[in-house]
Amino acid sequence: FLKKEWYDVKAPTPFLVRSVGKTLVTKSQGKKLASDGLRGRVCEINLADLMGGDEDHAHRKIRLSIEDIQGRNCLTDFHGMELTRDKLCSVIKKWHTLIEGWTDVRTTDGYTVRMFAIAFTKKQDNAVSSNVYAQASQVRLIRKRMVEVMNAEAGKVALRDLVKNLIAESIGKEIEKRGKKIYPLQNVFVRKVKILKKPKFDITRLMELHGDSGRDEGMAMERPILRRLHLK
Q1: Residues 6 or more apart from 218 whose CB is under 8 A from it?
Q2: How many CA atoms lie within 13 A of 99 on its CB side?
Q3: Where in this chain does the entry annotate a coiled-coil region (predicted)?
Q4: Is residue 192 one of the residues assigned to a domain?
Q5: What global pTM score does this model have?
Q6: What is the span of the domain harbouring residue 34?
């Protein structure tokens, strides 16, 4: 570890916890800079850790990519989101229809995002049969509603606001609201989000996302008290 050094990883504004951890990199040697080895590195963090330990968000994983280095701080941007495997396994049930849909959306600030959504049919109160299977025509209509909602919700906002909507589960709730007119739904989630294409790097926008967390400032320290030693 003599040739290694630690850098702090900083999360952007949609998340409550800004200092999310440290990452290790080889020290700068000659023309090979440590910052070059950090740019583009992707960190995977549980959303609960980014939201101050709130366990209601523990079923999501967030990916942050390091975009720039300021002093010892690695400034990151949103790079993707995914449901945890244990959450996916817990919502899959037999005798229910699984409905999936995906679409590519361009946000207002130039990011091309691929979004995947899932939904499951729900048993009605007056149902007699043990299975809850939707017809193929109903599945197609619900999938169409999924794509419409994802295009509408993600295409009218910037990436920062899209991340806020993903945290609040508002897109999944809207899909459930519109889809239940065709067939009752439950466990509706945006399962995965991938960044396919990013706009040209803008340091001003990145600094706005991070605010004061990107500054490499030292801590204030008290002046030490000097004591005179009396030697015998």
Answers
A1: none
A2: 33
A3: none
A4: yes
A5: 0.84
A6: 4-213
In a domain, 220, yes or no: no
Per the structure, how many domains does the chain have? Answer: 1
The CA distance from 150 to 144, in Å, is 10
- The answer to whether residue 43 is domain-embedded is yes
Cα separation, 96 vs 155, in Å, equals: 31
C-alpha radius of gyration, the chain, whole number:
23
Q: Which two tokens stand for residue 3?
A: 């040739």
Q: What CATH number does the domain containing 164 carry?
A: 3.30.479.30
Residue 31's pLDDT band, with cuts at 50, 70 and 90, is confident
The answer to whether 45 and 64 are in contact (CB under 8 A) is yes
**Residue pLDDT, tens place only, 76-97:** 999 999 999 999 999 998 999 9
Nearest to 83 by CA among 66, 95, 97, 100: 100
